[in-house]
Write a structure and sequence with these properties.
It comes from Pseudoalteromonas undina. The chain is α+β, with helices and mostly antiparallel strands and 219 residues long. 54% of the residues lie in helices and 14% in strands. The strands form two sheets. A four-stranded mixed β-sheet has the order 2-1-5-6. A hairpin with a 3-residue loop joins strand 5 (185-188) and strand 6 (192-195). The longest helix is centred in the last third of the chain and has 19 residues, at 200-218. It is globular.
Length: 219
């Protein structure tokens, strides 16, 4: 049984990050008799200068990418379909906002120590993209933390301190130095990188290829 170390550089605000992960999950499920993976999430901020109150998401995307309303509608349609294929539901019916995600990364760093990082990451994705919760509001954020079995008051104390600030900053800088400028980026065994919200077939092909290459190197 081949076991992969997979490091995922991503932002909770990135829709293609959840699409890519869900497709990776599908790929690993199909390959479960041949291989497994230990997954760790690492921080990336799409909008590090975003103020705490956030911004209307449609407005933000139109400003950032100079999209017309029609292009925005087409993007949402494509994303909804990609999410549906991956087994994830994007909700475009209500008011959505883009927020500063730095505190989410601090909580995810803590959740890694508690063995619940992937559970919290997925809960954040669902809260943000499906349930349209405003994760810049402390109570809403802490409810999500509690929903995966993490201690709500411990999380609150982290938010009101500078705990994990340096850890997140250092991790961000480390991956920046490695040349990672877009997310999601999946780093396999510290050596191979797969970028973007790839379909599950692409992950299957890549993992099999890496497995074969490493078997030759070990021979």
């Amino acid at each position: 049984m081949k076991n992969f170390k997979i490091d995922i550089v991503s932002d909770v605000m990135c829709p293609w990050c959840v699409i890519g992960y869900k497709n990776l999950e599908t790929a690993l499920g199909q390959l479960k008799d041949e291989m497994s993976a230990d997954i760790t999430w690492h921080p990336f901020e799409l909008n590090p200068d975003m103020p705490l109150e956030g911004q209307d998401l449609n407005e933000h995307l139109m400003q950032k990418y100079n999209l017309t309303e029609e292009q925005g509608d087409e993007n949402r349609k494509n994303m909804f379909e990609a999410g549906k294929r991956a087994g994830f539901t994007f909700n475009f019916d209500g008011k959505r906002i883009m927020i500063n995600s730095f505190d989410l990364h601090r909580l995810l760093t803590w959740a890694r120590e508690q063995g619940k990082q992937t559970q919290l990451k997925l809960a954040f994705f669902e809260a943000h993209f499906t349930d349209l919760k405003y994760l810049n509001q402390e109570d809403a954020l802490l409810d999500v933390v509690e929903s995966v079995g993490l201690d709500k008051e411990q999380a609150r104390s982290i938010l009101h301190s500078d705990k994990y600030v340096q850890t997140v900053r250092q991790e961000q800088e480390r991956f920046k130095q490695l040349g990672i400028t877009s997310v999601p980026t999946f780093i396999i065994n510290d050596k191979y990188a797969i970028s973007g919200g790839q379909p599950s077939d692409s992950f299957i092909q890549a993992l099999k290829q890496i497995s074969e290459e490493e078997a030759k190197q070990d021979a």
